[in-house]
Amino acid sequence: MENQEKPKALIVIFGATGDLAKRKLFPSIYRLYQNGKIGEDFAVVGIGRRSWSNELFHTNVRNSLGDDVSGKEAEAFVSHFYYHPFDVSDSSSYENLGTLLNNLESEYRTEGNRIFYLAMAPQFFGTIANNLKKHNLKSETGWSRLVIEKPFGHDFESAKQLNDQITSAFDENQIYRIDHYLGKEMVKNIEVIRFANGIFEHLWNNRFIANVQITSSESLGVEDRANYYDLSGATRDMVQNHMLQMVTLLAMEPPINLNPEEIRSEKIKILRALRTIDEKNIDDYFVRGQYGPDKMHGRKLRGYQEEAEELQNSDTETYVAGKIMIDNYRWAGVPFYIRTGKRLAEKCTKIVVEFEDIPLNLYQEEQSEKSPNLLVINIQPNEGVTLYLNAKKPGVSSYSEPIKLSYTHEAVNSVNTPEAYEKLLHDCMIGDTTNFSHWDEVSLSWKFVDRILNRWSKEEPDFPNYAAGSMGPEEADNLLKNDGFHWWPVNNEEE
Ligand SMILES: NC(=O)C1=CN([C@@H]2O[C@H](COP(=O)(O)OP(=O)(O)OC[C@H]3O[C@@H](n4cnc5c(N)ncnc54)[C@H](OP(=O)(O)O)[C@@H]3O)[C@@H](O)[C@H]2O)C=CC1
Ligand SMILES: O=C1O[C@H](COP(=O)(O)O)[C@@H](O)[C@H](O)[C@H]1O
After folding, report:
1. Predicted TM-score (pTM) of this structure
2. N or C end of the chain: which has fewer CB within 10 A?
3. Hey, whose CA ends up nearest to atom 7 of ligand 2?
């Protein structure tokens, strides 16, 4: 990792006329610029097929920054952007790109550092990587980094093929596979909460933790991504990457230091310890769902199959819940429940760690009710941590009631925490690979979800099976009920 106060680089965005560039990449680069995380020594080259001029590119970049951004600073920012149209499958066009990069490199004093950001469909990743190598566009004087967007493959086999293609042109340590959950402030905080607090770390094992629940619910439906999503589904879209990454951070052993390699090696051990579920037993561990129509917040909502013509009769899952077992010394017997889905009651990502209850609570009014201690890590939209304890009800009663100790991240810092992409782009510029997925993580997580998907591909589901605006199918509740647990509410008002 370089110790650069204001890293210098040429950022080449393949897919600069697309949605991701507009919604995430340009605004993130702007915030790095505005916050002084990067100085004037950078330039961005945007690539797409559209025959845009530099001026039109500038207008689009400026518009992507929102209405509040205008004036001299916005103009100074967009002046660093250059549009260079070509079809990425046309090998001859890369020569011209090379000339442009060399010219900009001296103009912007970027010391030969180059980021190639592939914000395009994955079928182009291999072609682009090969052409960059073939036409000597990898830097000779500085560093070169290849940033790859998801999805990284469709299953283990296709991910491996893709990996073979890109690693024939770039070394593993030059490849930055984005998982934007790893850039979220509270996901990064998991490690700190665990390893910087004795009261948690000493209890963080199967003697004191009854179960862990990770929910990432979305109120939005498939929106305009039907083409992508219908081939993907919730398991590939969310479980293979974001959900399993959160499981590894919650379950890993303390690293010996904070080097990316050490942290990664602990995460990989967890992925290797995930219980291999026999295909015939998948239904005991995983539940899939697809939303049907319903009303939410007064709006009449369509079911998934009515969202677009090509989705009629689709059997793609828009919801997954699962019980993940980690068969190692620390976690033997502790279920990690995950659930994620579209068109659920609300947008929320939250982790609930349920501690083992005491054998007898003399202060519990209703003995049949359990009131275990909970540690809740709020990832979004609220950011913070809440610890649920039991304390005496005020007044003459000697019964206990749950109370909560809450820390709200935003309120304390009184500024918005950096957006995930902003953080990850900066990490890439300083060469910090901690928050990117290594091939070993990607391959192990594909192998894990492939078993589930294989099993499901052999049986037609009875879809739709949950109403838009609900919290998913009933079977997902049964997963926990069978173990004597229930999902703790994720209602944002709760915290
Ligand atoms: N959008 C999002 O929120 C997210 C997207 N992603 C991933 O990011 C990547 C990009 O997604 P998104 O921006 O939504 O996609 P879009 O369809 O909006 O954009 C695709 C881009 O690729 C360019 N392109 C396509 N074919 C060629 C070609 N042959 N030569 C040169 N340029 C080409 C298009 O430019 P033109 O049309 O001008 O040729 C456009 O800029 C995908 O891998 C997606 O899965 C990941 C997470 C979230
Ligand atoms: O990667 C993805 O994530 C988003 C959810 O991200 P969040 O930061 O809003 O929680 C999801 O909507 C999308 O389908 C998926 O591709």
Report:
1. 0.94
2. N
3. 181
